[in-house]
Design a protein that fits this description.
The protein is of the alpha+beta class and 181 residues long. It is built from 5 helices and 8 strands. Strands 1, 2, 3, 4, 5, 6, 7 and 8 form an 8-stranded mixed β-sheet that branches. The protein is elongated.
Amino acid sequence: MKNLSIISLFSLFISCTQPFSKIEVEDEKSKVIEKIFQEVAAEKTQYLEEIFSDNMKMVNSKKIEFNKNEFLSGINDMYDLFENISFDSVDANADGSEIETNYYSNGKVWTSVWNNFSATGKYSGKKVSFPFHISYQWENGKIIEEFQFFDTQYFEKEANAKASKNLTNEKVGFILELSIN
């Protein structure tokens, strides 16, 4: 019985020392994601067209799925809505905005980014800044999935400002003045 306890304890110890994943912050995939954000800030999409798989799937914060063409169209829509797009720099010290890639023992690879989006609305003139998290799954050197986590209200408000300016807004706005006698 004593030997069985020792063997069980030893097995538990050995299994705990085997990592399920390895995290890298300065590897090639993390650098690719960093370049993606540099390209987005420069309002370029060519690099995105190359690095995202033709069969990629993007899922936004509202759990709506998009294919690659719809995803790239959404990026171009963002360029239409905002100017001076920028992101915080990353320095791999876990003090703020970061990019890290997880290499799992089952062969899956995910890169995650935590950062802040800052820009000025082209139609409202309002400056916006908000935190976001995005995770990317890799396969054969290409991104096959992207999952976004952030409050989409900033994009919706700027899209409404655009629609109002272009007189295509379906929402009706009015001011009601009330007085008490």
